[in-house]
Amino acid sequence: MKFLTILNAVLFFFSGCWPRKNNKLVFGAWLGTKFADNPKYLLLHLAAHAPELDLVWIGQEEVRGSLPGGLPVRFVRRGSLAAFYETLTAGCCFITHSTNDISRLTVLNGAKVIYLGHGLALKHMGTPSDVLSRRWLQLVRALLRKPECYAFFAASSECHGEKLLHEYAINGATPDKILPAGQPRVDFLIRNQAGGLADQIRTKLLASHPFPSARRIITYMPTFRDKRQRAFSFLTLEGNERDRLNELLEKFNAVIMEKSHFADAKRETGTQSPVSGRLIGLSGNAPVDTQEILLATDILITDYSGCYLDYLVLDRPVLHFAYDREYYTNSDRGLYFDLDVVAGGPVVERFDALCEDIEQDLLQPDRHHGRRESVRKSLMAFETGEACRKICHAVLAIGQ
Questions:
Q1: Both 210 and 96 in a single domain?
Q2: Long-range contacts of 333-338 (CB under 8 A, 24+ apart)
Q3: For residue 136, is pLDDT > 60?
Q4: Are 363 and 228 in a shared domain?
Q5: pTM to 2 decimals?
Q6: Residues of 56-94 as b/e, b for ≥16 C-beta within 10 angstroms?
Q7: SS (H, E, C) 18-29
Q8: 44 band by pLDDT with thresholds 50, 70 and 90
Q9: Could you tell me how far CA 20 lies from the centroid of its own chain?
Q10: Lowest mean pLDDT among 15-24, 111-120, 128-137
Q11: How many structural domains compose the chain?
């Protein structure tokens, strides 16, 4: 049993005696390493619509510069005494992964902690809640897990809610805590799909690269592999495969932007060139937000990452390059959903088939519209562009 787990259980218990300010809201994401994801977009919504609230973003010092200038939000460094105080006195806390997003020490007893999550994942998530052999052990575990039990969980669909109930029972997930609201980060895509923001982001993405006038952006976003296996990378292609892909990209004046999963990018820093012809590598810590990249993308390639589910609201082509499906399903994290059933487009396992489907999607972007629409209705049914409003109403009693 880890010392920190016991310490947090004690701190959590005593933190319930401290008075809290209901108008103070703290936010954090990705263990404090990013100003991003669902907490970011909810915070931006509140900053624009609820000036009476005291909004606090807690993150590592390098995140400070990511916050927009003039935003009515206080930034506090994660791990500081100030962050400890803000957490101890907050009325609400919004996170993507766990309370570790804002602090290693959990002093949120009496505050509402809302698990906004970081998208609907195809892979297994959470911690299994196995029944222990003795009742007293179950009681001890429940006490130790209390600091990581949340008041609400945001869901994109009924299927998402069922997945949360199955995988986050140990975090207090029950049917009454599932918010059928959608996710704030998807609001951003829905509300900007028809405006000029996508073109602005496209210009920004291409400005510093060899092909600033490229007409199409193909984005590759693979998922994380627990077993330290590296995901396929376009940047390391050689020989005939490289030549074929470059020929295809030149034909359509397109580029491929590759954004590794955050955890993969951290452990593989410096292992590959960031630019290779029409192939552009974006670090997992890239200053461009993932949602902004999706908004500017013409074709999305992934393997098993749930990022394509967000992308479905834009009704643009999706390709699944499942080159290691058997390994990932049986020897790594594994999939909660059947990929063949929930895929947003063709599932291919060979590179030559991938190239063929890229070309077909460039020529006929609507060819799998029906499939995308079907999956969206099933897995993203609650995504209407009103997630921020609905969450604020349910959690903070703000708005209608």
A1: no
A2: 333/123, 333/124, 333/224, 333/225, 333/226, 334/123, 334/124, 335/122, 335/123, 335/124, 335/304, 336/121, 336/122, 336/123, 336/124, 336/125, 336/163, 336/167, 337/122, 337/159
A3: yes
A4: yes
A5: 0.92
A6: bbbbeeebeeebeeeeebebbbbbeeebbebbbbbbbbb
A7: CCCEEEEEEECC
A8: very high
A9: 29
A10: 128-137
A11: 2
Shared domain check, 373 and 318 = yes
* Number of neighbouring beta carbons within 10 Å of residue 341: 9
CATH code for the domain in which residue 197 is found: 3.40.50.12580
pLDDT at 9 over 60: yes
- The sign one gets for the Cα dihedral 368, 205, 260, 281 is positive
Q: What is the pLDDT of residues 61-114, one digit of tens each?
A: 999 999 999 999 999 999 999 999 999 999 999 999 999 999 999 999 999 999
Nearest to 373 by CA among 383, 362, 364: 383
Residue 163 sits in the same domain as residue 211: no
Residues 144 and 254 in one domain: no
Both 205 and 352 in one domain: the answer is yes
Instruction: State whether 236 and 373 are in the same domain.
Output: yes
Q: How far apart are CA 212 and CA 199, in angstroms?
A: 12
Range of the domain at 249: 191-379
Do 4 and 99 meet the contact criterion of CB atoms below 8 Å apart? no
Cβ neighbourhood burial of 201 (10 Å; 0-12, 13-18, 19+): buried
pLDDT at 267: 47
Instruction: Find how far residue 366's CA is from the centre of its chain.
Output: 26
pLDDT of residue 370: 97
| Nearest to 349, CA basis, from 378, 365, 329 | 329
Do 37 and 262 contact (CB within 8 A), yes or no?
A: no
For position 350, what pLDDT does the model report? Answer: 96
CATH code assigned at 14: 3.40.50.11820
Is the torsion defined by CA of 148, 149, 154, 155 positive or negative?
Answer: positive
Verify that 54 and 96 share a domain, yes or no: yes
pLDDT tens string 208-234? 888 999 999 999 999 988 766 778 999
The share of the chain scoring above pLDDT 70, in percent, equals 91
Sign of the four-CA dihedral 135, 141, 146, 149: negative
